[in-house]
Design a protein that fits this description.
Subunit structure: Homodimer.
Protein name: Triosephosphate isomerase
Helix content: 40-55%
Bound molecules: 1,3-dihydroxyacetonephosphate
Number of domains: 1
Catalytic activity: D-glyceraldehyde 3-phosphate = dihydroxyacetone phosphate
Shape: globular
Radius of gyration: 17 Å
Number of strands: 8
Strand content: 5-15%
CATH topology: TIM Barrel
GO cellular component, one term: cytosol
Function: Involved in the gluconeogenesis. Catalyzes stereospecifically the conversion of dihydroxyacetone phosphate (DHAP) to D-glyceraldehyde-3-phosphate (G3P).
CATH architecture: Alpha-Beta Barrel
Largest sheet: 8 strands, parallel, barrel
Distance between the termini: 13 Å
Order of helices and strands: EHEHEHEHHEHHHEHHEHEH
Number of helices: 12
Length: about 250
């Protein structure tokens, strides 16, 4: 049994005060044993959010980090800086970072290794564009992203990796993938992990779907064989909506 995992990705939203307001408003977060939950917030909010959630079941994650330990990388944040303040998860290779910030499969791989080296849980994002889907290349694209992103990781590290399938055409568009399509692609990812490692490893790895997930459709996704959770943007910005997502994952 894989534990459900719902993560909110706030992207570049919320001031410090608004972030604190969100956390203060949470009243119904399920036990971490039943549903793992995380809010991946902008860097400057992380320490405060970690401190404020010490007695809560929610985890705090980052949206990116650098792959080197330390050094002359102006504007960057290291894995050690994140773990030092109690951050547990980090999103790696989100399609927006691939599109706007030159993230490549190679940097995704370096960052994923660096996350494991520092005991951070990486949420590695993969997903095809609409053009790639229309050309019938969705599976091929995602298989390649998984292969290159996980290259060189040990089986134990892969078991502790979360993979988020986020088709680019479904992000922030309101045009979510059908649960059947999302499940099929998450199945492709699991099969690829089995081919690269083993069936046992692929049974452990948790795969999230992301792209216009909301309280109204979360249960449909969670009911799918290969979907173990969701990476949520817009619907994770309001505390009541986020709690409804957690409740949807809990009751599935
Ligand atoms: O990119 C996403 C999460 O990382 C998905 O965003 P939306 O839920 O707003 O479509």
């Amino acid at each position: 049994m894989r534990k459900p995992f719902i993560a909110g990705n706030w992207k570049m939203n919320k001031t410090f005060d608004e972030a604190v307001e969100f956390i203060d408003a949470l009243s119904n977060v399920p036990s971490n044993d039943e549903v793992e939950s995380a809010i991946c917030a902008p860097f400057i909010q992380l320490k405060e959010l970690v401190d404020k959630t010490q007695s809560s079941q929610i985890n705090i994650g980052a949206q990116n980090m650098h792959f080197e330990d330390a050094g002359a990388y102006t504007g960057e944040v290291s894995a050690e800086m994140l773990t030092n303040i109690g951050v547990k998860h980090v999103i790696i290779g989100h399609s927006e970072r691939r599109q706007y910030f030159n993230e490549t499969d190679e940097t995704v791989n370096l960052k994923t290794k660096q996350a494991h080296k520092n005991n951070l849980v990486p949420i590695v994002c993969v997903g095809e564009s609409d053009k790639e889907r229309e050309a019938g290349k969705a599976a091929e694209v995602v298989e390649s992203q998984v292969k290159l992103g996980l290259e060189g990781l040990t089986a134990e590290q892969v078991k502790a990796t979360v993979i988020a399938y986020e088709p680019i055409w479904a992000i922030g568009t309101g045009k979510s993938a059908t649960s059947a399509d999302a499940n099929e692609m998450c199945g492709v990812i699991r099969k690829q992990v089995a081919a690269l490692y083993s069936g046992a490893v692929s049974e452990k790895v948790r795969i999230q779907y992301g792209g216009s997930v909301k309280p109204e459709n979360i249960k449909e996704y969670m009911a799918c064989e290969h979907i173990d959770g969701a990476l949520v943007g817009g619907a994770a910005l309001k505390p009541d909506s986020f709690e409804m997502l957690l409740a949807g994952a809990l009751n599935e």
